[in-house]
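Request from the bench team (R.T.):
"We need a structural guess for the complex before ordering more coenzyme A. Sequence and SMILES attached. Just send the tokens back."

Command: build protein-coenzyme A structure.
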Amino acid sequence: MLQIRPMTPDDAESARTFVNGWFSVYRDHLDYDSGVWNALRHSLWRHGDLSLWATWDGQPAGMVMAGRRAVTFDGQRLVSAHVGPVAVNPFFRRKGVARGLIRSLQDHAASAGVDLLSLMAQEIYPFHKLYTATGFRLVERFQPLGAQFGDLQVPDWADPVPVDRWDAVRPASQAREGALTEQPPASRFLEGNPDVPVKAFHWKGAGVLVALWPVLVRVGSTRERVWSCQVVDAFGTGQALGLVTATALAWARRHGCEGAYLMPTVGSVPDGFSTEGAPWVHRYCKGVSAAGTSAVEQATRYDQACPAP
Ligand SMILES: CC(C)(COP(=O)(O)OP(=O)(O)OC[C@H]1O[C@@H](n2cnc3c(N)ncnc32)[C@H](O)[C@@H]1OP(=O)(O)O)[C@@H](O)C(=O)NCCC(=O)NCCS
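Reply to R.T.: structure attached below.
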């Protein structure tokens, strides 16, 4: 029988091991080593009360991780429970475990004052039906922007910013009209996570915050661990943004990265990034309060009227 309960700190180690195994169907996935898992616990999921753990007749059956994020919509401030990863033990799939986890998460989130659930998933994978079947709405479809480093040769123009000062140097972001904008977790990435390299740079009114994530890529029958550089946040324009980005990317390359990516939700887009070859991503939301439901409805209509280029 399926049982679902809040995840506790004692579940963390098993959850980490299971999620790595349960995602191994994919060509590549984040390597949830202990450092990465702890970093995410302290930043993305730090209100751990929203993450849930499922058992089936006492056996580990699945989990959903979720953490609160600030969201703005049309001048309103809302709270989302950002969902992911959701993973179910292959032994217990297609028995309604994920559906049960999402339903419980929705109940927990609503009673904890959350307005909406939100998540992102790559378009090429087959499980989207899970989200539409559980009442999520597609609010945005986009391609992350990527940059190849190639022969990047740059001096260090920009100054590193002490990570805890990122929010102080960053101006408030400009939300895209009609979009549900989630505030990037920005400086929260910088707390308590010595194992995830994170660096912020700032120069003449422009700034870039990058985080390096270890990814396991399937190569033949084994997996290779490579670094992936995510631009978590950026602000500024023109030459200043170009130079500060070049410095950040040079730093990432020194750590073994060969390219970088950023989401359109990131404020500014430096030159040199393009969507060429990037997989499409779906962003889904589901309202759990009256304000959240109304914002999701409106954002869905906006996205259908103005699809991403
Ligand atoms: C995706 C995943 C979480 C689904 O878990 P699950 O417990 O098997 O899902 P459920 O039984 O609750 O499925 C509910 C509905 O979702 C849809 N669904 C679930 N898995 C699906 C799949 N692989 N392909 C297509 N539809 C799927 C179906 O509509 C299903 O209803 P049905 O069985 O009545 O047709 C599980 O396959 C998994 O852990 N995969 C690896 C990790 C992953 O991909 N996570 C999601 C991305 S973050």
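Two things stood out. The chain has a mean pLDDT of 85. The chain has two domains: 2-140+285-305, 145-262.
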